[in-house]
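Box 3.1 — From sequence to structure: N-fatty-acyl-amino acid synthase/hydrolase PM20D1.2
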Amino acid sequence: MGLLGSLVKLLVVGVSGLVSVMLIRTFTFPSKQPNVGKCSPEDADFIKLTDEMITHFQDAIKIKSISWTIEQMSLPEILEFHKHLEKSFPLIHSSKLVKKEVINTYSLLYTVQASDMSLKPYMLAGHMDVVPVDQQDWDVPPFEGQIVDGFLYGRGTIDNKNTVMGIMEALEFRLKNGILPVRPLYIAFGHDEEVLGMQGAGEIKKVLESRNVQVEFLLDEGTTVVQGVFGGIKTPIALISVAEKGAATVNISVDAVPSGHSSMPGKETNIGVLAKALSRIEENPFPSMFGRGPERSLLEAIATEASFPLKFVLTNLWFFSPVASWMMSLKPSSNALVRTTTAVTMVNGGTKMNVLPPSAWGVVNHRIHPAQSIEEVIEYDHQLIGDDRVKIDRLGLGDILPSPISPHGDDVFGYQVIARSVNQVFPSAIVAPGLMIGNTDTKMYWNLTKQIYRFCPTFMLPSDLPRFHGINERMSLENYQQTINVYYHVMVNADSKDLSHKHSHSEDL
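Predicted structure (token representation):
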């Protein structure tokens, strides 16, 4: 056998060995799912949805607590929402265990005392305001709280009055049954999350920081339980976001080319220079950050439920990371998880059809991966454009730093409390860490804890995704019952001093 034959033989043996190792890993890859007991309607501590609870939710939806801009908010309606909470949850508002504070006139902070005040408290958060609606596009009026075919329709049903009402129903249930919390709890409801949250959560943060409050973990609104969104995965996936992308908006402008009559143009115009700059930005996306955020952990969490050959890839990311990164880059929804994204959102230039434009500008919105900074993103824009005639200026308004990535391992108390609670109520779902591509009030609370998580117990199919901030927003009554029970189980599981105790549904109420 010649040298070439020996090399070929060695190559075949090497490849065969590599494939064998990968196959063994594929079929022995451990599940990342928590081992917990299923929550059942037969359990003594299962919260069954009552007509009264439904009415509470309907009446919350009827309140038009809309935030249009920072300067324009439905503040009287926010105060009406306060009264609705007081009326709907009398035990919370009369219990000696609960202290209610109104922060900055419109936001709410509840402090729930516990039997063991030495334990570090945790915090649940939500917001009372909603985004505007274009009512003519809705099949069901957005502020009437109508139920059609088992779904409650209305603005706020999935963002975010479901969270607010679900948390309160769970706490009211505990108080009604005489359950004394073991671990202290803060509940924070902002009134302006939809317009950056500076007057709501921003002021709540100041109050808590002035008291040197530190919490074990924080759970706010965020990603949901989705099904049919990930190709090759039929099982529902509950995404608990452990980080949040940042945002930066830049103005790209050109005024270097002299104006004049269009009958005597030069080689370029300001609009032409701008167009080339914007094209370079669009045609050269930011590099993939795969493996530097939670995306790898997400794929490994869903790996055991994937079909072959996807399962082969996901259980061997040590080898296939470039392939996984490429796969995630194919769709806008998954591409946003692995890199900083760029969107040209506004363009303006020219004053008259026969006059060379004296200037031109465009607005670019970046959503920034947690592995990058705003400064790195701006520098990347400069390098891509490579033209000194093009000015890049940060607009500043709405700029948000990417969040730190919260821990999400098997030994992380906050993450596991939430994961176990979700798995108890959604036993068929895969629980996985995710990345929030939008922004929430959590950006205000970074100093309170390193364990910040973003999750809503909202079940969504691909057809439901446009309902978020869109038309015909709705939640099924079954899903609202699940929502209440998830928050109840978070309260129960958080009462454990550590992760050794697992709520088994055998406890007496």
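Summary of the box: The longest helix spans residues 3-28.
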